[in-house]
Amino acid sequence: ALGLIVLSGFGPGAAASEMKQRKNILLIIADDIGTEKIGCYGVGAETPPTPTLDALCADSVKYTSAWAQPACSPTRTSIMTGRFGFRTGSLTPTGPIPVHYDVEGAPKFLVDGQVLSQLVKVGDFTAKEGSPLYYQTRGEKIPFKPAFGTGPRPDETLLPELLRDHAGYKTAAIGKWHMADGQNSGEAGLHSHPNAVGFDYFIGSMAGGIENYYRYQKYAQGEDAGISETYATTDTVNDAINWLDRIDDDAPWFMWLAFNAPHDPFQKPPMELISKKSRALDPDGITAQNANLYYDAMIEALDTEIGRLLRNIDRDNTIVIFVGDNGTPQSVLGAPYPSKAHGKGTLYQGGVHVPLMISGAGRSSKRDSRLAHTVDLFATVLEFAGVDIQSQLLDKPIDSKSLVSSARREWIFADQKGVLPTAFVDEQALRNRRYKLVVDRRNETMHFFDLEDDPFEASPLDLANLSKKEQKNLSSLKAELESLLQP
After folding, report:
1. Which pLDDT tens digit goes with each residue over 55-64?
2. What pTM was computed for the model?
3. CA–CA gap between residue 483 and residue 417 (Å, rounded)
């Protein structure tokens, strides 16, 4: 869909009385959490106790067919720009790529003479941009330049710029950023990126993850803010509350609240934030076999701290959006998915099907099964703020459709291309109400699923034995995908 951004409504010069007609907007992004980990979705058999999210869910429009991109930076960029990854170039996580190597017999990558592989066995190192990189198959060594992950390019128009400059919102980004890179940081420098794209205030971490939830590097307003020794989830909420306490109330505010949790490293949270069952965990006893227990405990702590934040805001005057940035990590993915290999970093449902709830927007709480995507939050937030997007002309295509007023989507899309920790990927997925197509360009393969009969993708349909209805849907999805990807 093409769209024209019409900057209307309340600009910076609007009267205070007019500005207060706009609601505050709190966008909460949880890092690495699929629908099967949120009890109110009824997907997972065993979910951690999350009373705050349960209450929010009961007071929200709960979207049950929402997709994100399969990794963090691309999802965040989709929200910021309202555009799919193949348009913005944000197709894998930003920054240097940690790569695992030394698996005999698998297709291999070579970086600086070291063997890399699609599978993890032993060792790891970082393949920095500019390293000579080769793909080796059938005894042939083929050089190629990987698409290292990028954030939004300098020529993109970002959500907070529109909110601040054309709707008069005060804007803050709190917590994890992970969208700054060498291409978009400019003269202001890497750590100033949030402040360069429309955020009045930024405090948090810049990279994709933190080394330790109890000790991590922070930045504030483009400057080194030192090492935090406050549990990261608690620290993020402290920063959010501190910002809200400092601003006056003559204008609405937008907060991009991006938690690190429950992204690894999986660690036991402080005792006061978790359930009695999780308090029994040994802080030093994590193994590959019990990592899911620590992951669940981190979700409990996240829920507790979100509750503290919500008690400190004016709920009657605030729209609250909660979304996951991608599915659950493969290492802790469980039932109902048939394989751990269906999680984060893949285009399986376990990698892209995420919780999405919107509360306080004047709509009654309900279950909404419409197809939705994180890219749609761009138009949705702008509509809440009074910035109108009309489907006419624009120098760049806008893929975002408002969840408030737009017609229902006929399909949703996800893609990834570049170097991941375990593979080079180039794939796209497109689904309609019932069927889903996944195309792997690297292997020249295609998988087709019936999500009504097989919602967790235990087995793709046999392409040689499709019914007329299945064949019609496959042909339609293939045509739609190829049309979408046309330059």
Report:
1. 999 999 999 9
2. 0.89
3. 18
